[in-house]
Design a protein that fits this description.
The chain is α/β, with parallel strands linked by helices. The protein has 16 helices and 22 strands. The strands form 5 sheets. A 6-stranded mixed sheet has the order 6-7-8-3-9-10, sandwiched between helices. Bound molecules: adenosine-5'-triphosphate (ATP) and magnesium ion (MG).
C-alpha cells in the first residue's frame, strides 16, 4: 500500500494541500478528482519526489519514503505521466523513450533503440513514429510518447496526471486496456481526469479533493458522475447544450480549395466557411491536419494553392495574422503564455501596444493591472492576484487566463483549439457558455476539438478532418429537428466513406 499521510503544502499564501491523507491500494485504479487548483497535481508531484511537502509523509508498505527527487521515486517503483509534458524536444521519440532507463547502459545501437520504441508502441497499442523529433509532434502525439515512457518503466505504482486530455477515444480505450492489464498484474494506478464517464469506466476507487482538502474516498461503484460533480464543486451542475444559431451573417473566414504540403500532414483541397453568429466544428482524430489548418487560418503558413480569406466585422478583407484572430491555442504553455511573466502581463499579450495599455512605447501599468483584475474576477482565476507568475497557476487556471484574454476582445473570428482540455466540469461548462455567447454577439467561432461530445454540444455545422481532407457532415433525420449522425461522423473520423454502412 502507498499512503499519503497528513500531507500539507503551501505556496506562499496559497494552501495547496491541508492535512491530506489517502491510501492507495495494490491492484487498484484510484482516481483523484477535483476542480482546477484543488491540489491534485501537487499531491501527485509529492508522491513522485518533485515537490517536498511542508508536513506529512509518504509511506510505502509501512516504510516512510525519503523522496528528495524523482530518482528516489523510481527506486521505489513509482512512475509518472505529467500533466505538462517533460520530453526533450530535440530528441527523437525513441531517444526520449529510452531516456532515464538505466538498464540500457551507456551505449546502445540506434537500431536497437528504435526497435524497442516500436515494440513498446505495439505492446501498448499507442501509435508513434520512433524516428520523429518530439519538437515536430502534435500535442496528442506527445501525450502518447509521455505515456509510453512511463508504462515502459518497471514500476509498481503508475501516476497519470490527466493522460487522456488530448487522446482520441480509441487511444484512450487502448490506454485503459493497458492500465487494466497492469492492475490485474498487481500494479497500483493513480489516475487524474476531469472526464467523469472515463473515471466511472476505469476507476475502482475515487478520492475527491476540494481546495486542498480531502472530501471523500469511496468505491467507484457507489459514485455517479452527478455525485462526484457535487462533491468536487459543492453544488450540482447542469450540462450546457447550445441551441442552434437562429441565423448566421456574413462570412468571417473562408477557405477556398486550400492545399499545402508544407506541414507534416498535407492539406488537400480544403474549403470551408465560418459565418458571423455560428459555431463551426472540426472533428477528427488529433494529427490529421488540425495543426496545419490552424496555422493557415492564423496566417502562419500560406497556401500553395487556393485562398484563405479573413474578414473584419464590417466585411472588409484583412490579412490572416495571429493578431487578427482570437486564438485559444492548443498548447497553452508553448503557444499562448509566457510562463515567467505575470498573470497581468500575460493578460495583455498581443494587445499590449493598443492605446489602452501603452502610450508612446510606455506601458500603462495601471490600466494593465485593472484589466487583469477584471479578467480574474470574470473568469474566476485563482489565486486572484495579477502579480503571480503564469507558471505557478494550475493547468486549468492557466487555461482560463488564455480564454479570458482571447475572448475579451474583438468581434471577428474566434479560433478555439481543444479549448477545454484540462478544465474541470464547472470550467468546461463556463467556457462553452462563453463561446456560445461570443457567437451570439456576432463572432464566428471555429472550434477544432478532439472531443466529439464537445463538438456535438456546441456547433451548428460539423466538418470532419481526416488525412488533411475535410468532409462536411450534414444534419439529417426529422426535418423539424435535424440532428448530427454520430455514427457517420465516427466513420469519417476513421477515414471511411460516409455511406458505406458500417464495417467495410
Ligand atoms: N509552483 C507553484 N507556485 C505557486 N503556487 C502553486 C505552484 N504549484 C501549484 N500552486 C498552486 O497550488 C494550488 C494547487 O495546484 P495544483 O496544480 O495542485 O492543482 P490541480 O488540482 O492539479 O489543478 P488542475 O486541474 O488545474 O491541474 C493552485 O492554487 C496553484 O495555483
Ligand atoms: Mg493539475
Amino acid at each position: 500500500m502507498l499512503e499519503a499521510r497528513r500531507i500539507a503544502k503551501r505556496f506562499g499564501p496559497v494552501v495547496a494541500l491541508a492535512d491530506v491523507s489517502v491510501e492507495f491500494h495494490d491492484r487498484e485504479v484510484h482516481a483523484v478528482l477535483g476542480e482546477n487548483g484543488a491540489g491534485k497535481s501537487t499531491l501527485m508531484n509529492i508522491l513522485y519526489g518533485l515537490i517536498r511537502p511542508d508536513a506529512g509523509q509518504v509511506v510505502l508498505d509501512g516504510r516512510a519514503l525519503r523522496l528528495r527527487r524523482p530518482m528516489d521515486a523510481h527506486a521505489a517503483g513509482i512512475a509518472m505521466v505529467h500533466q505538462h509534458f517533460m520530453l526533450v524536444e530535440d530528441f527523437t521519440v525513441a531517444e526520449n523513450l529510452m531516456l532515464g532507463h538505466l538498464d540500457v547502459g551507456w551505449w546502445l545501437p540506434r537500431s536497437a533503440v528504435r526497435r524497442r520504441a516500436r515494440e513498446a508502441a505495439r505492446r501498448f497499442a499507442l501509435d508513434v513514429d520512433p524516428d520523429r523529433r518530439v519538437e515536430e509532434l502534435s500535442v496528442g502525439q506527445r501525450q502518447r510518447v509521455e505515456i509510453l515512457k512511463a508504462l515502459l518503466r518497471e514500476a509498481h505504482t503508475f501516476i497519470l496526471d490527466e493522460p487522456t486530455g488530448v487522446l482520441s477515444p480509441d487511444d484512450a480505450q487502448q490506454l485503459f486496456e493497458s492500465l487494466r492489464r497492469l492492475r490485474n498484474r498487481g500494479a497500483r494506478i493513480l489516475f487524474i481526469s476531469h472526464k467523469l464517464n472515463e473515471v466511472m469506466a476505469i476507476a475502482d476507487r475515487v478520492t475527491v479533493l476540494r481546495r486542498g482538502r480531502r472530501i471523500i474516498t469511496e468505491s467507484a461503484d457507489r459514485a455517479t458522475p452527478e455525485s462526484l460533480a457535487q462533491q468536487m464543486v459543492g453544488r450540482p451542475l447542469g450540462e450546457f447544450v447550445r441551441p442552434p444559431a437562429p441565423s448566421s451573417g456574413d462570412a468571417v473566414l473562408e477557405l477556398r480549395n486550400v492545399s499545402s504540403a508544407r506541414g507534416h500532414v498535407a492539406l488537400r483541397d480544403v474549403s470551408l466557411v465560418v459565418r458571423s453568429g455560428e459555431i463551426v466544428g472540426i472533428a477528427g482524430v488529433d494529427g490529421n491536419g488540425q495543426t496545419e489548418l490552424a496555422r493557415m487560418v492564423l496566417g502562419l503558413d500560406r497556401p500553395e494553392a487556393g485562398d484563405v480569406r479573413l474578414f473584419d466585422p464590417d466585411g472588409g478583407r484583412i490579412e490572416p495574422a495571429p493578431r487578427a484572430v482570437a486564438h485559444i491555442a492548443d498548447d497553452r504553455r508553448r503557444e499562448a503564455l509566457v510562463l515567467n511573466m505575470s498573470l497581468a502581463e500575460n493578460a495583455v499579450l498581443k494587445h499590449h501596444t493598443d492605446a489602452t495599455f501603452s502610450r508612446r512605447g510606455w506601458l500603462n501599468r495601471r490600466a494593465i493591472a485593472s484589466h487583469a483584475a477584471q479578467l480574474v474576477r470574470e473568469f474566476d482565476i485563482r489565486p486572484a492576484s495579477p502579480f503571480v507568475a503564469a507558471a505557478s497557476l494550475s493547468g486549468g487556471n492557466q487555461q482560463r487566463l488564455v480564454i479570458g484574454r482571447e475572448l475579451a476582445a474583438g468581434r471577428g473570428l474566434v479560433l478555439a483549439v481543444n479549448p477545454t482540455r484540462g478544465l474541470d466540469v464547472a470550467s468546461t461548462d463556463f467556457v462553452h457558455r462563453r463561446l456560445s455567447e461570443r457567437a451570439a454577439n456576432g463572432c464566428g467561432v471555429l472550434l477544432i476539438s478532439a472531443d466529439l461530445d464537445e463538438i456535438l454540444r456546441l456547433v451548428d455545422r460539423i466538418y470532419v478532418i481526416h488525412s488533411g481532407r475535410l468532409t462536411e457532415s450534414r444534419r439529417a433525420g426529422d426535418p423539424a429537428r435535424p440532428t448530427h449522425d454520430t455514427a457517420e461522423i465516427a466513420r469519417l473520423m476513421a477515414g471511411l466513406p460516409p455511406d458505406c454502412g458500417g464495417r467495410t
